[in-house]
UniProtKB/TrEMBL annotation:
Record-stated family: Belongs to the major facilitator superfamily. Sugar transporter (TC 2.A.1.1) family. Glucose transporter subfamily.
Protein name as it appears in the record: Solute carrier family 2, facilitated glucose transporter member 3
Biological-process GO terms, alphabetical: D-glucose import; dehydroascorbic acid transport; fructose import across plasma membrane
Signal peptide residue numbers: none
GO MF term (any one): fructose transmembrane transporter activity
Any GO CC annotation of this UniProt entry: perikaryon
Gene: LOC112819176
Gene3D superfamilies associated with the record: MFS general substrate transporter like domains
Keywords: Cell membrane, Cell projection, Glycoprotein, Membrane, Sugar transport, Transmembrane, Transmembrane helix, Transport
Length: 377
């Protein structure tokens, strides 16, 4: 029963990680889409922190109470289920998929607190017209069509950059890492990572519409790469220098902070920004599958890697972080302040350019920056 229950939770958790960022992106104003998308990550990290605190022996982390802690999952699930009927249908879905323009207009006006949504409705109409001329986008079509190949590649790589960064190795095995570093009460240091995790997600919430997704993601990856090197050095030298234990804790906390600056929240919601209404569900499914598969592999392989490599295990993540940093610099576009239609048309322009000249230069979307009008929405 325990395994079956965890399986059901995992299945629906996987569904929610795709649906929630997609829904948030579709109901958010263009100028606040990144900030609202980060709220999804904020909810996740708050849940992690609450679980860490409730897992203390003085609360519910005992042999007698751990089943109750496991069943505590039902509380947020019931609250979310009760709140769901009050959430309106996505206005983009209503207009583009069901052709219910008035319903979409009413929802936009109510959600955004303004009567002037003409420009947004027109943008949805344009997307609807273009979708009518396209064939249905399936998962296979995402990899076959030139228009989708680059955005789906970016989506997959961003999900991998989140999970192969080493963050879940830190969270899954942080208590053991801190114990190896010489900390007498490692569980409290682990809770400290949860606190930092939450604080810097809030920081990212305010930065994402100012600095942009691409800049924050590269900053996070670069900072994590440096911290992973420091973590390796501190674990290697902890037996020679007592103060290295504190250095290891500091490097780990900063590692987590940089994660929440970029690689934590951004990969989830940027996938929804890269695709139009038609291929978006399939793209979210591929992205979610990539994320959870890499998550599973890290959890499965990290203990063995740590056993054989010892302190050098984090050098593996350093290599991944540098790889993803280079990829982000050359391939990931800045979507801040751009409508879904503008982003989609930019990728289509690249596809047309590639079709005209297979070996010719391809327009890089990194050069596409938000206009002053859209950037200040």
């Amino acid at each position: 029963m325990l395994i079956l229950g965890r399986l059901v939770i995992g299945l629906f958790c996987g569904l929610c990680t795709g649906f929630v960022p997609m829904y948030i992106g579709e109901v958010s104003p263009t100028g606040l889409r990144g900030a609202f998308g980060t709220l999804n990550q904020l909810g996740i990290v708050i849940g992690i922190l609450v679980a860490q605190i409730f897992g203390l022996k003085v609360i519910m982390g005992t042999e007698e109470l751990w089943p109750l802690l496991l069943g505590f999952t039902i509380v947020p699930a019931v609250l979310q289920s009760a709140a769901l009927p009050f959430c309106p249908e996505s206005p983009r879905f209503l207009l583009i998929n069901r052709k219910e323009e008035e319903s979409a207009r009413d929802i936009l006006q109510r959600l955004w607190g303004t009567q002037d949504v003409t420009q947004d409705i027109q943008e949805m109409k344009d997307e609807s017209t273009r979708m009518a001329q396209e064939k249905q986008a399936t998962v296979l079509e995402l990899f076959r069509s030139r228009s989708y190949q680059q955005p789906i590649m970016i989506s997959i790589m961003l999900q991998l950059s989140q999970q192969l960064s080493g963050i879940n190795a830190v969270f899954y095995y942080s208590t053991g890492i801190f114990r190896d570093a010489g900390i007498e009460e490692p569980i409290y240091a682990t809770i400290g990572t949860g606190v930092v995790n939450t604080i810097f997600t809030v920081v990212s919430l305010f930065l994402v519409e100012r600095a942009g997704r691409r800049t924050l993601h590269m900053t996070g990856l670069g900072g994590m790469a440096v911290c992973s090197i420091f973590m390796t050095v501190s674990l290697l030298l902890k037996d020679n220098y007592n103060w290295m234990s504190f250095f290891c804790i500091g490097a780990t906390l900063v590692f987590v902070a940089f994660f929440e600056i970029g690689p934590g929240p951004i990969p989830w919601f940027i996938v929804a920004e890269l695709f139009s209404q038609g291929p978006r569900p399939a793209a979210m499914a591929v992205a979610g599958c990539s994320n959870w598969t890499s998550n599973f592999l890290v959890g499965l392989l990290f203990p063995s890697a740590a056993f054989y490599l010892g302190a050098y295990v984090f050098i593996i993540f350093t290599g991944f972080l540098i790889l993803f940093l280079v990829f982000t610099f050359f391939k990931v576009p800045e979507t801040r302040g751009r409508t879904f239609e503008e982003i989609t048309r930019a990728f289509e322009g690249q596809a047309r350019e590639a079709n005209r000249a297979e070996k010719g230069p391809i327009v890089e979307m990194n050069s596409i920056q938000p206009t002053k009008e859209t950037a200040t929405v």
